[in-house]
């Protein structure tokens, strides 16, 4: 067993025990198990910049932000972003300072395959990620790599992007290049980040590629992404696992959805919403029976029929596909940020047809819940515990890695609100693990750095490190939360009071 494989083996199976004797018996702090891992997360388009440098092909977010600057609140784009493409050494030094044990980042498909296809591989793209991996290795930080975080090569979008079934084959080819090239170094893989988000917001809405075709193209996208995920997992299992080892999962976003009232109708509506928002992608992969959630199947079939369609707008898997996709995971990557309330909807919600109309629920948040700098994100830590338990009960307690949890606040280094957010969510997570028995092996904070927040541009800041976008070298400065998180990562414990890590940020 080589070092890296051993490292991952420990991370996932026996829970890597680098930090031992963290506490004595009199210590009243809340502590995670010795093997529990802390990390931070980023994504290629949001931090790299260098959008057209050294052979990189155009991605859909390049095209979209250039053609439609008005779609981004501050009319910014990811052309330069955090310039992480040029700052491998600097960024890894900061990661090391954080004391974390893993770093989750994504690979830009069009940096590796500029046209999206496997016949031409861009050597400089390979060089960049190899350099990053080597630097992480030197610093004993385990890479967790996402193959796809929203940035499809533009050339593939011209073919219809994820609405085209052939995209699954092209994704398999891309994954093969990644496994062949980086498989020796990377042992923890995520195929996709948040298919719900890029299928619903991208194909059902106005994020890139901005198809705005909810109730149709969102379902086509989801269908092909699920097929693509299953195909890559089976290829990994058959051709790579024995040879190079490793673990493969998928990252899904799960906001907790709580019934607005105790009425039977609202309880039912909240469960339907969970099946639509989360079960859409989780049920085919993680449930015992596989395929789409039965409630999603029946509601969309019935709605389609009522609307005069001969075929359901939600495509059908073949029995072979159901089998291929079911169980296609070694672990679940879970993103969790916030909670919503759900009320039963009275028919005809918004545009018809649409995802929201098919689901027939009303989603909102409570005014009293603490606000953040993102309109969709309220601080509701108890929802984290509920979401984790719902996963445990519905999908036979899968091994889970929290691949994102985080919050945006205003600029500034004394971000006590962020410290409070992380601390309260980590407490909820601790309860879910130690009282409820959820099998969670690690936690990544989103994000390592302030970055390009899609249609919110640079106006929403999620970073443990602040980035000064006015300074020519995009200076990174640790916030108070970086110090707090360093303490947590190094001790495995939540400090009893914030004075434990108070530090002068001036
Ligand atoms: C994550 O998604 C993404 O994985 C990550 O790239 C991103 O940086 C991070 O969130 C923080 O934003 O604008 O009101 O229509 C979390 C799920 C889905 C939440 C899209 C925000 C848009 C809400 N996100 N959603 S709104």
């Amino acid at each position: 067993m080589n070092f890296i494989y051993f490292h991952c083996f420990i991370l996932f199976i026996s829970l890597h025990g680098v930090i031992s004797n963290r506490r004595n018996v009199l210590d009243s702090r809340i502590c995670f198990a010795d093997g529990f891992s802390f990390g931070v997360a980023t994504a290629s388009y949001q931090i790299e910049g260098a959008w057209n440098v050294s052979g990189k092909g155009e991605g859909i977010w390049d095209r979209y932000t250039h053609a439609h600057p008005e779609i981004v609140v501050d009319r910014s784009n990811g052309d330069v972003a955090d310039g992480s493409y040029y700052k491998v050494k600097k960024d890894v030094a900061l990661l090391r300072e954080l004391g974390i044990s893993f770093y989750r980042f994504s690979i830009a498909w069009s940096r590796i395959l500029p046209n999206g296809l496997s016949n031409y591989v861009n050597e400089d793209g390979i060089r960049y990620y190899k350099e990053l991996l080597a630097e992480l290795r030197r610093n004993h930080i385990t890479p967790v790599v996402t193959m796809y975080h929203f940035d499809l090569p533009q050339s593939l979008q011209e073919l219809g992007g994820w609405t085209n079934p052939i995209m699954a084959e092209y994704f398999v080819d891309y994954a093969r290049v990644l496994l062949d090239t980086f498989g020796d170094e990377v042992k923890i893989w995520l195929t996709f980040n948040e298919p719900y988000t890029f299928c619903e917001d991208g194909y059902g809405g106005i994020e890139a590629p901005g198809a705005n075709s909810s109730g149709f193209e969102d379902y086509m996208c989801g269908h092909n992404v699920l097929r693509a995920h299953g195909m890559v997992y089976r290829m990994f299992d058959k051709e790579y696992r024995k040879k190079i080892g490793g673990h493969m999962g998928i990252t899904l976003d799960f906001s907790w959805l709580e019934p607005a009232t105790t009425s039977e109708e609202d309880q039912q509506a909240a469960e339907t919403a969970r099946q639509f928002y989360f079960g859409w992608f989780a049920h085919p992969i993680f449930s015992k029976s596989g395929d789409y959630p039965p409630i999603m199947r029946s509601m969309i079939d019935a709605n389609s029929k009522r609307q005069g369609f001969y075929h359901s707008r939600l495509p059908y898997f073949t029995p072979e596909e159901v089998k291929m996709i079911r169980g296609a995971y070694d672990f679940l990557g879970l993103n969790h940020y916030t909670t919503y309330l759900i009320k039963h909807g009275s028919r005809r919600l918004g545009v018809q047809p649409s995802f929201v109309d098919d689901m027939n629920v009303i989603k909102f948040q409570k005014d009293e819940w603490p606000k953040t700098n993102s309109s969709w994100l309220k601080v509701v830590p108890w929802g984290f515990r509920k979401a984790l338990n719902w996963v445990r009960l519905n999908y036979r307690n899968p091994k889970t890695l929290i691949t994102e949890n985080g919050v945006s606040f205003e600029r500034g280094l004394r971000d006590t609100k962020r410290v409070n957010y992380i601390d309260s969510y980590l407490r909820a997570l601790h309860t879910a693990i130690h009282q409820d028995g959820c099998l969670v092996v690690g936690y990544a904070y989103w994000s390592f750095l302030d970055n390009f927040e899609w249609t919110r541009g640079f106006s929403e800041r999620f970073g443990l490190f602040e980035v000064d976008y006015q300074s020519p070298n995009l200076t990174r400065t640790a916030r108070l939360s970086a110090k707090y998180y360093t303490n947590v990562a190094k001790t495995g414990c939540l400090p009893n009071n914030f004075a434990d890590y108070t530090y002068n940020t001036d």
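The chain is about 40% helix and 15% strand. Residues 337 and 405 are 5 Å apart (CA to CA).
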